[in-house]
Amino acid sequence: MNTTFNDTYEIKSLIGKGGMSTVYLAEHKRLHTRWAVKEVRKQQGTRFDFLAESNILKRLQHPMLPRIVNIFEDTENIYIVEDYVEGITLDNLLKREKKVDEPLALQWFRDLCGVLRYLHTQQPSIIYRDMKPANVMLQPDGSLKLIDFGIAREYKEASSGDTTYIGTKGYAAPEQFGRAQTDARTDIYALGVTMYHLVTGKSPYEPPYQFVPARELDGKLSHGIEYILNKCVQPEPADRYQDVDKLLDDLNHIYRFDKAWKRVQAVKRVRVAVIAVMLAASVGLIVAGRKVMAQERVEQYDAYLAQASGLYTSDYDGAVAALDQARALFPDLPDADRQQTYALYLNGQWQECIDFGTKALEKFGPDTQTRVSMAAAQFEFGDYEQAAEGFAQGGELSVDDMRDYAVCLGRLGQIDQAEEVLADLTGQGAHPDVTQYVQGEVYFAQENYLEAESSFLNALEQAETPALTRRCYVSLGDLYRDCAALARTGSSPIQEPATKSAELLSSAVVQDGLRYDSVLWEMLAMAYFEAYHVDTTVPSDYLTRAADCFNRVIKLGVTKEYLYSNLYTIYYELSAYDKAEEALTAYQETFPDNYMPHALRGMMLITIENEKPQGQRDYSSALTEYEAAGNMLRSSDDTTYYQQLGSLIDSLRQNGWL
After folding, report:
1. Judging by DSSP bridges, how do beta strands 68-73 and 77-83 pair with one another?
2. What pLDDT, on the 0 to 100 scale, is given for residue 586?
3. Quick one: pLDDT at residue 139?
4. Residue 4, strand partner residues
5. Distant-in-sequence, close-in-space partners of 384: CB < 8 Å, separation ≥ 6
6. If you placed Cys at 625, which of 351, 362, 532, 598 could pair as Cys (CB 3.0 to 4.6 Å)?
7. 37 with 80: CB under 8 angstroms?
8. What is the pLDDT of residue 150?
9. What is the pLDDT of residue 344?
């Protein structure tokens, strides 16, 4: 096997191998950037066009799709250079977790619908044809990315069948094996099978080889998910959802299938006529307020804005396309920019939200809704000063925005103002979980740690939303971390805070929606580590548990240098030198330009040699690592570890060992 491709990309490791291609992790030799290089044999014994994937992807731009950056070939193979997608495939996730909780699965269901909608609305429509857990990557930030476009095809309206019969049995729709041409309903079938596997844990390869109602396998599943999955996997395309929009509508309104909701709707029907009249009147007022504009353009403008609002999280690119059409009609109105700023925030693109909102304010002048969206993004970054300023300019805030505003004020030490916002929240009848959480943040800012702990725990017990539940766990973790620092000087009001943190967070990471939260797993790792060193009553395996948690964070796709150095530190302390070396090797492979793995390895090798009888010691390997580290040093590096190793090397030289 070659060690480089095109004398440009150096092979680092094998990612995967299939019947059509082999995929390698490679590094650009000059830029030191990492890419996935797909090597496809030209002679496959089939009529399939193996440039289909690259030709399709080159023109697509969607956050859930990888980019193609280069294509080249030699006499035997075609090479496609794509984004290297970090994370874990859903099939590997299923092997470990068996199944996924319904709330998280529903979000993934909607996200995958969004990217399929994007593909299906291309001109001509693109049919993916290979949806399955192995082709969906869960990234470190919790988002999904669709990979492997090897059998995608453009839909040909006049064609009665596909020229190539290909797909993954079990997930592929019946028409993929010669019955008819594939279309959007083919992808809906495969998506249904994929989600059926995720929520029930039953693979299509397991007997019985049929789709029994999902609730027969797991009675905790909702009636709505059972109905939707059943409709997706019908053998006849005509019996399935006819397009992704109809599927998304049911997913976004899954409560419609709940029996209690249906009873409520029966009662509400008597008021439909009155509501319709009121709605018509309100629409009439809006239109009248814009009488200076042409009536048809106004209606189309409002339609584009409404269309975009329904696509914020399911199809961001589709939302932007609708907003662009609205801008084309009335470029001097701020509505489209205001909505796009908010959509960026909802999609977790916080820096992009701030940058886009800043440009919108420069163009259109002050706008309270745009400024609040920016403030929410600044809050997520921990820029409490800018966030507080934005919330203060936001006029009448929602309960969630008031909650975050109060937290900002507390973190800035503006306790009186934070308490005023808390009083407003209480006066507006905000749910006790929200007010208890904000009260906890106020106490935390006052360094009243016992009261803060009590408030956070009360809020956690009453929390009605997954987002607030997570915030309570994070705030409690922060609280116990600060108290653990105080405990080292004997001044913590909370006894054994690190142990408390470990116990609390270990119960959090097994809960629905939190099992793949890398932030909580990392906090748990640090809690185990701290508790092991300060609390003599904890189990002796706490240090090993800390290592397991750091490994979990890395498996979730997070690549941060300190994760590897922390792993090394733990294994070194345990004298588990083989595992310490594994951590350093992974560190070096992930960050090949960093001197630290060499410096740490050099110090470990000296320790290993020191434990041997004097006549068997050989420090030459440590010297080699020291020299390698020195050759890699950059002016911006923290040289502490290099200097420490240097001192050890100097001592060995002075004593005649080198």
Report:
1. antiparallel
2. 94
3. 86
4. 10
5. 378, 407, 408, 411, 412
6. 598
7. yes
8. 53
9. 92
Q: Are 306 and 322 in contact (CB under 8 A)?
A: no
Give the per-residue pLDDT at 180. Answer: 58
Same domain, 249 and 172: yes
User: Does residue 389 lie in a domain region?
Assistant: no
In this structure, the answer to whether residues 60 and 117 fall within a common structural domain is no
Phi then psi dihedrals of residue 565, to 5 deg: -70, -35
> Tokens 């029994």 sit at which residue?
212
Query: Which stretch of DSSP H or E encloses residue 529?
Result: helix 518-534
Boundary (domain end) residue, out of 83, 107, 136: 83
The answer to the question of residue 52 being in a domain is: yes
Render 397-416 in DSSP notation, one character per residue.
--HHHHHHHHHHHHHTT-HH
Residues 253 and 318 in one domain: no
Q: Where are the beta strands (DSSP E) in 604-654?
A: none
Domain residue limits at 314: 292-332
Q: Closest by alpha carbon to 171, among 121, 223, 129?
A: 129
pLDDT for res 259:
53
Element (H, E) at 246: helix 244-252
Closest to 87 in 3D by CA, of 158, 38, 136: 136
Rounded CA separation 211/228 (Å): 13
Alpha-helical segments (H) within 153-219: 184-200, 214-217
Question: Could you tell me if 152 and 12 lie in one domain?
Answer: no
User: Cis link prior to 124 (omega < 30° from 0)?
Assistant: yes
Shared-domain flag, residues 37 and 141 = no
Which of 208, 239, 257 marks a domain boundary?
257
- The residue among 476, 446, 474, 467 whose CA lies nearest residue 399 is 467
**The tokens 């980019």 sit on which residue?**
67
Within this chain, do residues 65 and 152 fall inside the same structural domain, yes or no?
no
22 within domain boundaries? yes
Q: How many C-alpha atoms does 230 have within 13 Å on its Cβ side?
A: 11
Report the distance separating Cα 116 and Cα 108, nearest Å. 12
- Cα-based angle 360, 382, 337 (whole degrees, multiple of 5): 15
What is the number of structural domains in the chain? 4
For the record, the structure tokens of 595 come out as 């001197």
- CA 604 to CA 577: how far, in whole Å? 8
Number of H helices, E strands in the chain: 28, 11
Say which CATH number the domain at 230 has: 1.10.510.10
Spatial distance between the Cα atoms of 516 and 552, rounded to a whole number of angstroms: 9
Q: Are 59 and 201 part of one and the same domain?
A: no
Closest CA to 456 of 491, 421, 410: 410
CATH number for 48 = 3.30.200.20
Domain shared by 238 and 101, yes or no: yes
User: How confident is the model at residue 55, as a pLDDT?
Assistant: 60
- Per-block mean pLDDT, blocks of 10 residues, the chain (658 long): 76 78 84 83 54 61 80 81 87 90 89 90 83 89 78 44 51 70 87 94 78 88 90 90 90 69 45 44 47 66 84 86 92 91 86 93 89 89 87 80 87 86 82 88 91 94 86 92 91 95 95 86 95 92 95 89 94 95 94 94 95 94 94 86 91 92
List residues bridging with 154 in a β-sheet.
126
User: Tokens 């300019």 identify what position?
Assistant: 393
Pairing of strands 77-83, 34-41: antiparallel
Tell me, yes or no, whether 436 lies in a domain.
Answer: no
CA distances from 33 to 12, 161, 628 (A): 12, 42, 21
Rg, Å, the chain Cα set: 29
Beta-bridged to residue 399, according to DSSP, are none
Phi, psi of 214, deg, nearest 5: -60, -35
pLDDT, residue 188, reads 94
Q: What is the C-alpha to C-alpha distance for residues 348 and 350, in angstroms, rounded to an integer? A: 5
Peptide bond into 497 cis (omega under 30): no
- Name 331's Cβ contacts closer than 8 Å, sequence gap at least 6: none
